[in-house]
Amino acid sequence: AVRWLERLTAIDPYAADAHESLARLLMRMGRYRRAATRYEVLCLLEPSEPAYWEGLALACDRAGEPERARRAARRAVTLEPASPVRRLLAGSASMPASSAPSRVRPERDR
Fold first, then answer.
1. How far is 43 from 58, CA to CA, in rounded Å?
2. Which contacts (CB < 8 Å, 24+ apart) does range 10-13 have?
3. Are 57 and 73 in contact (CB under 8 A)?
4. Which one of 3, 39, 50, 57 has the largest count of C-beta atoms within 10 Å of its C-beta?
5. How far, in whole angstroms, is CA 79 from its chain's centroid?
6. pTM, 2 dp
C-alpha cells in the first residue's frame, strides 16, 4: 500500500487524499519522520486545515522532534483553538496516540 500511495503522489503531487492516506499509514507503521514529511506537504497544499497541522505535530512529537512538533502545534491551535495538540504547547513530553484529531488516527505502537 505504501508503494502504491507513493506512486500516486508522484503522479499527482496535489492529491491531498493520497498524501493523507500515506501519512496515516506511515503513522500506523511507526514511520513518524516519513509521516511528518507527508504532513508537511499537506500543510503546504491546504494550510488552513488544522487536522494536517495536528498530524504534523503528532508525527514530529513521535519522531522525537519536540521543537518542530511545537511549531506545528502552535499553527494547529491558531486554526483550531480546541485542538488536542494544545498539550504539546503546555510542555507535555508527548501526545498519546489516542488524542489524535478525528482526521488523523495513528494507532498505538505495538
1. 13
2. 13/41
3. yes
4. 57
5. 15
6. 0.80
Half-sphere exposure of 76 (CA within 13 A, CB side): 29
CA atoms within 13 A on the CB side of 69: 24
Q: Which residue has the cell 494536517?
A: 52
Q: Residues near 73 by Cβ (< 8 Å), separated by ≥ 6?
A: 53, 54, 57, 83, 85, 86, 88, 89
